[in-house]
Amino acid sequence: MPEPFGFLPVDKPLGMTSHDVVAAVRRLARIKRVGHGGTLDPLAMGVLVLCLGAATRLSEYVMATHKRYLATVRLGAVTATDDAEGQIIAEQPIDHLTAADVAAALSAFNGEIEQVPPMYSAVKQGGVKLYERARRGEVVEQAARRVWLRTELRAYHAPYAEIAVECSHGTYIRSLARDLGTALGVGGFLAALRRLASGAFDQPIAWEALQAAFADGTWQNYLLDERAALPHLPEIALDAANSAAIRHGRAIRAAHSAPEGALARLYADSGAFLAIAAYQGGAWQPVKVFQH
Description:
By secondary structure, this protein is α+β, with helices and mostly antiparallel strands. The protein is 22% helix and 35% strand. The radius of gyration is 22 Å and the shape is globular. It catalyses: uridine(55) in tRNA = pseudouridine(55) in tRNA.
């Protein structure tokens, strides 16, 4: 029986780690190759895109897409982890804050900004994950990274601010919560988070519904293909000669030009998905080739 290929956008429940979901689907689907397109913390819910079979080779492109969130930020308090998992280590009064104050401070978090990851994160420094160093009591100077954000204050009912966020890959919503609290002079942490969309995926399958589909053998009906996962990459149909060249790892000079380094999805003369290719020096160079 051929290994399944495709993507499952799952509505990750509260309390499960992303690895928990991957491990469960690996067991239920009885396949080894299962990955995901962007981690969600245990206290976060929402869209977690699973990649199955050879689609795991495309996870980096899913991961690189923009994400949309609805975040609840608790103002007036600070935790060591920048979220509700950590104990509150400092508090400040917030009676003076208005919704206009919060919106004004939030407006600075739009466009490209420099953001420092939370100390409790999987970012590696010196080959060691930051959360491992934090658990040992180490304080590590971290480098800021450039990220892109679009934010909007949806509601403010003290001490909670509800914020809509669209952001680039590598953005930490916990850092946004922390930095917003700092900008307001009262501290803040992420109290709750729901991922509304991961790239093109915005209609996740309820975890209970997916489990039921595994039980009755219909789960593959939920699998989506690379067209659904990567609609932002243009599609190029090849003739037989160019299809053969790509299969053998050779670059092709096609009529479809693009900016240097741009990516595209290539399809064989049979119509089957063939490769991800990059436009380099006037030719399409295969980056990842798929054999069907």
